[in-house]
User: What shape does this take?
Amino acid sequence: VFGSLSGEFDQLRQIFATCGDVLTTRYVGLGNNCNRGKHGIETLCLLFSYKSMFPENLILLRGKHECTSISRIYGLYDA
Assistant: This one.
């Protein structure tokens, strides 16, 4: 279980390196993965890539920061 990564791509990679890769370990992401950090897009891309490759091993939930109003503030929303 992980959450509130806030765009910290290196932290996400460290979680997978320490706890096991997504091929052999099941994860639940609790959301708030892309706000504030410098690498929000990279973090989401890695999570979505793993979700598409290993859908049974990765559950991604939307956090309170993954909404339209917050996404606009942090530049992750394009109307």
